[in-house]
Structures are given as C-alpha cells and as structure tokens.
Specification:
Helix content is about 45%, strand content about 15%. By secondary structure, it is α/β, with parallel strands linked by helices.
Amino acid sequence: MTNQQPVNIVMVEDDEGHARLIEKNIRRAGISNKIKHFADGTSALDHLFNAPDGPVMNGPALVLLDLNLPDMSGTDILAKIKGDDRLKRTPVVVLTTTDDKVEIQRCYDLGCNVYITKPVNYESFADAIRQLGLFLSVIQVPETED
C-alpha cells in the first residue's frame, strides 16, 4: 500500500482576475492542496514535464486549463499531456469561456476529463468554481507512471 501523495493543482490561466477567483473559491471549498499558477502554456509545460516539483518528477497532479492562452492553444497543452505516457492519467479540467460545441468535442476527444464553460457573470463563475472545489475534494487521482 503506497502513501497517498497530496495532489498538486496546476492552474494554467492567463487572466489574473480569473486565476485569483478560481484559487479563492477552491480554497473556500476547503481544498488546501498546493496550487501552482502559470499565465502561459510554455512555462506550464516546462513545469509539468521538467520541474523537480512537477508531476513527471514528483507524483500526482490535477490540471486546470484555460484554452485561450497568449502563446499557444490550451488544446495543444492538453494533447501534449494526454499524449505522454508519464502524464496521460493526469486529470485535466478545461475551464474556458468557449462554449463552441466543436471545441468541447475536440477537448473530450483529446482526453480532457471535465469541460467547464466559465459563466460571464461573476456570481455564476464563483458558484461554478465552488462546485469545482467540491468535485476536487472527492476526486481520486491515479498515481503517475514511473
């Protein structure tokens, strides 16, 4: 029986306001896991694959992924995570303003676990994130491959 490692949350979100709101409401839901925030895809991928405290080197993570990033598409990041044997079991929650059916389908085809459309108004957004927090509090994350 292995010791359950705490799951690190990797948030990839270029909008500072959204990032703060997401973190605040995840904390409100009682989630105390470490949250690492990245505002662009390049630094997020570097962390995921190469950082000593990233999931490849350091065990389980859960990724909160915005699709609209300044340097690359979130779907590219999703494809890289799900296409890598060491990370393919990492749960990815897509959190984005896009409710385009084709985009949603594409994310699920690429292996995203949950797709959440960010509501435009603040209250609904906060509510959606609180529900996400409750979801995160019960989710089981598989161990990463060695």
